[in-house]
Amino acid sequence: xxxxxxxxxxxxxxxxxxxxxxxxxxxxxxxxxxxxxxxxxxxxxxxxxxxxxxxxxxxxxxxxxxxxxxxxxxxxxxxxxxxxxxxxxxxxxxxxxxxxxxxxxxxxxxxxxxxxxxxxxxxxxxxxxxxxxxxxxxxxxxxxxxxxxxxxxxxxxxxxxxxxx
Length: 165
Description:
The protein has 165 residues and is an alpha+beta fold. It has 3 helices and 4 strands; from the N terminus they run H-H-E-E-H-E-E. It has one domain (12-164).
């Protein structure tokens, strides 16, 4: 009995077939991780903004929308620069908000903040009407973050967070 010839290059062919699948799998996991990080950042920013602008008690006025916007920009500084934050878009009705009607949809690398302040125009108003009333802060972040194969495949997404106080 003679020796059987070993097929050469079989492992290389199998590796070449499996490599694109493995690359897409790893890229997808990275994309999901980044998306989750963006979701956490927008959630924290919306919560901080709502809590801050709702800083009205029965004895003090709240800080208003401009200062709330500064806080949200500071919270999101790690993922987006200040010029890419459209803040705030004041919505005159209670949520849900509609894209295109109540706020402009963010593109990659942009943030849109939409706020509903109940009966007041800028979340300050008189002392008593703002006490224990509804404030809704929505933070929308769009991202184009993962480019595969030299930009031939781009995975984009968005993160939307709503906080009521």
